[in-house]
Specification:
about 400 residues, SH3 type barrels, 4 domains, 4-stranded antiparallel beta sheet, 4 helices, elongated, disordered N terminus
Length: about 400
């Protein structure tokens, strides 16, 4: 008799039950009447452990900081800032993700924005930059380079002999390096427009200078102050294309302050600018403080004193050119120092030769063809400058 045992597999919950059956022949069952059978039915319980998977929580995405200040925008990613609205300009700094910057201008397409510090940043690095800012047009740096490049003379063939015209001789170039952050300008002076910035150590190719030698013209036609270059180029030629200063440009800032009159009616001792003492009859004196701030790289040498005193009696005007110092001042040339770029000086000067009816209409200082002047009126002189009638002159001697 043949036996078949069927294998049954069942799954319940987390337990698995397995039944196995085998085909087993019968041995001697017909003779004995006893059936022999081997049946294997072994339910096996296997406990399945649930798998535990640990999932690491993802870090939160960076959020753009809120900005509620008008004119401010947020930087979306780390980005360099440039001296002009193009990647060709020199980098002048860097902004990080989340930085808030104030933008004040954009280029005509508003693809670049100028910050309040004067640097430029691409629009793609900003979160929703405004489109209604004033437009500032900046001459592309490639245009500056084009203007400075000489135009090569084409070769000319002359028949029957083929003779090419020699290529033009390239102008010599001197090489130096910036010793500090150097502002590059359109002309030789701080009154000209800024077109770039050179970083400390940047190579500068110099081609010429201005007449006084305090500005160098670069190979690309722009200008840099000579003191910002690590080399003194004594053999530089004078540039042939020096631009004229902008209208109203000033090399100095000159101010006159604390004007004051005094009734003297006596002989007084004053020093001239050479430090020599003089006894002069003074009916009424006028004193004023003159302050000078050098805004250009050309040095201002001693002596610097008022150039002209313009006097008025209400009808006619006259001019005095002598400026006096207080006693023990010493020679002005020794007391004053050379004023270089950004230097300042402050001196007090005296006008002694004034008649009874006269008052100071104006004071002038002239330098480098520029006149710096302050005007006064008689009403102000009487009100706040101690101007008054000093009486009949007591001077009985003749000068």
């Amino acid at each position: 008799m043949k036996r078949f045992i069927v294998a049954i597999v069942g799954v319940t919950g987390v337990f698995t039950i397995i039944s196995v059956a085998f085909y087993i022949p019968s041995f001697g069952s017909e003779k004995t009447g006893v059936q022999s059978a081997v049946a294997v039915s072994a339910p096996t319980v296997v406990e399945s452990q649930p798998a535990i998977i640990e999932v690491e929580e993802a870090p939160p995405a960076k959020a753009i900081p809120p900005i509620d200040q008008p004119g401010h925008v947020v930087v979306l990613s780390a980005v360099d800032t440039y001296a002009g609205p193009d990647y060709e300009y020199i980098t002048v700094g860097q902004k990080s993700f989340g930085d808030a910057v104030m933008v004040v201008h954009c280029n005509p397409s508003c693809s670049w924005y100028e910050t309040e510090e004067g640097a430029w940043i691409p629009a793609i690095a900003l979160n929703s930059p405004p489109q209604n800012l004033p437009v500032r047009e900046v001459t592309p740096i490639i245009e500056l380079l084009k203007k400075a490049q000489p135009t090569a003379t084409p070769f000319v063939l002359v028949l029957p002999t083929v003779t090419p015209t020699p290529a033009p001789t390239q102008a010599p170039v001197w090489t130096g390096a910036a010793v500090d952050y150097a502002i590059i300008r359109r002309g030789p002076g701080t009154t000209f427009e800024q077109v770039g910035v050179a970083l400390p150590g940047d190579v500068l190719k110099v081609a010429a200078r201005n007449v006084t030698g305090d500005w160098y013209q670069l190979k690309n036609g722009a200008w840099v102050a000579a003191f910002l270059v690590d080399q003194d180029f004594n053999d530089l030629p004078v540039a042939a294309n020096i631009p004229a200063p902008p209208a109203g440009a000033r090399d100095l800032e000159v101010t006159f302050s604390n004007p004051h009159y005094k009734c003297m009616q006596s002989f007084c001792s004053y020093e001239d600018i050479a430090g020599q003492t003089h006894q002069v009859w003074v009916y009424r004196s006028f004193e004023v403080e003159m302050s000078i701030h050098n805004l250009n790289t050309r040095p201002l040498l001693p002596v610097y004193a008022p150039t002209r005193w313009i006097l008025s009696d209400g009808v006619t005007e006259s001019v005095q050119t002598i400026s006096w110092q207080a006693q023990r001042s010493g020679p002005a040339q020794h007391r004053q120092r050379t004023l270089h770029y950004d230097d300042k000086a402050h001196n007090r000067w005296i006008l002694a030769s004034m008649e009874r009816e006269q008052w100071v209409r104006a004071v002038e200082f002239e330098w480098n063809g520029q006149i710096y002047r302050v005007d006064y009126d008689l009403a102000t002189a009487r009100e706040s400058q101690n101007y008054r009638d000093c009486g009949e002159s007591r001077n009985t001697s003749s000068d």
